[in-house]
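Before the break, one more example. Copy the sequence into your notebook; we will annotate it together after we see the structure.
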Amino acid sequence: MRKEREAEEARRLKMNPMRAGWQRRERGARSPRSPRRAKKGPSVPLQIIEGHTDWILDMQVLEGSETLLTVSQDATAKQFDIKSGDCIRTFEGHSNSVLCLSVNAAATRMYTGSLDGKVCQWDLTTGELLHAQELHVKGVLAVELVPGEGCIITGSRDNTAIRWDVTSTPWESKAVYEGHERWVMCTTITDDKLFTGSTDATIRRWDMASGTEQLIYKGHSQEVTSMVLYDGHLFSGSREAVALQWDVATGACIRHFTGHLSVIRDICIYNGRLFTASADGTARCWDLDTGACAFTLTGHEFAVTSLFISQDRIFTGSSDAKVRRFAMEG
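Here is what the structure looks like once it is written out:
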């Protein structure tokens, strides 16, 4: 019997010479010095929050509270109590998908942007719609409050970003940022500078007051979907499933974060680590010094479309219309 097995193995080896290398690797993998490790199973969420009927596209946890705000492709925004998971308020006023939200520092006002071209201002204490105005002829993809100025920045499918004075009625345009060849997908602000990311695969830096373009960051091959600033660096996610780290001053690309299998939908920094959410159904944590992936959250059956971290709790929104809460790893 042994001779028959050896003859059969010799025949297979003759047909496939690479089999010898495979056998050595297998023997090494099974040796006592390198025991096999059990494959990690799907990450188990501590909580699943439900209430929307379509993709969740943006969210925020109010600082120091148990309040979660979400916006969705179902044309609504919602307010959830995290402890109970209950939806305590629904904000209705848009006629199309609500894509983005921003909350003032006092957590009394929320601004939501939609594919209907409008931005709505809401009273978070009462749920009242305070103001709604069509700011772009095409959809609003990004909205962000300018700290301490009474202004918001909007990015749109009309290829522009605009700064609006929200203390006047109606809201007045204060500066228009023109230069992108395609949609403005995301924005971020530091001091007197505005950064805009676009489906034209570039990021542009602007003087916020004058609207003058200062620098173009080139390195992505597909649309820029999300951005965050941290410690003199800009981090961006994109459709090619890669996140990049940039030197803000020079525009030089410093590092690539690779590992996702599909578009990176959202990106954030928490406790000096980079977090990314992807349409591949995972969220990842990255070491900023090495670029290595520290851990991966799995378990989603569909795309992870939004991400927010608060008090060591990771919240992920998905195209299945649910929010999942995970414990921080590592």
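The chain has two helices and 28 strands. The chain has one domain: 49-327. Try to locate both features in your own notes.
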